[in-house]
């Protein structure tokens, strides 16, 4: 069992940056691939980025590629999402998720564990 707690959200102006963190507790974090998803008001949850359990493989949604970077520190049991050049359309609740597979997935149905979410608001 893994518990996930996100932090680092907030209000930022367009063009600004934020770094989200997802702290895990429980067992065998280093054997979980991790991902970030987001959900804007009135919209379905969408994939943002994933990272393999070693950190060697990552994947990004086209909408964030080149602006967001996912990383992890297994010694701290934490996964990060660095978000640069933020746009108003990035406004959403951001969730981290984990699954017991080496490689991440674009599909939210393939993740076993979820955090409670952190709000990111980008003003224009």
Q: How does this model look, in words?
A:
The protein has 124 residues and is an all-beta fold. 0% of the residues lie in helices and 51% in strands. The chain is built from no helices and 11 strands. Strands 2, 4, 5, 6, 9, 10 and 11 form a 7-stranded mixed beta sheet that branches. The chain is globular, with a radius of gyration of 13 Å. The mean pLDDT is 95.
**Whole-angstrom Rg:** 13 Å
Beta-strand portion reads over 45%
Total DSSP E strands? 11
Helicity, as a percent range: under 10%
Distance between the termini: 40 Å
The biggest beta sheet is recorded as:
7 strands, mixed
Low-confidence sequence ranges = none
Query: Which overall shape is indicated by the principal axes computed on the Cα atoms?
Result: globular
Please tally the helical runs, counting DSSP H or I stretches of 4 or more residues.
Answer: 0
Protein structure class = mainly beta
Helix/strand order: EEEEEEEEEEE
How much is the average pLDDT? 95
């Amino acid at each position: 069992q893994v518990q996930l707690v996100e932090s680092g959200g907030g209000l930022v102006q367009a063009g600004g940056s934020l770094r989200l963190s997802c702290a895990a507790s429980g067992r065998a974090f280093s054997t979980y691939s991790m991902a970030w998803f987001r959900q804007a008001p009135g919209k379905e949850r969408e994939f943002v980025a994933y990272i393999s359990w070693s950190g060697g493989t990552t994947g990004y949604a086209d909408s964030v590629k080149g602006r967001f970077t996912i990383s992890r520190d297994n010694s701290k049991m934490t996964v990060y999402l660095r978000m640069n050049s933020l746009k108003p359309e990035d406004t959403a609740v951001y969730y981290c998720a984990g699954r017991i597979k080496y490689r991440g997935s674009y599909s939210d149905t393939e993740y076993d564990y979820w955090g409670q979410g952190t709000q990111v608001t980008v003003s224009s």
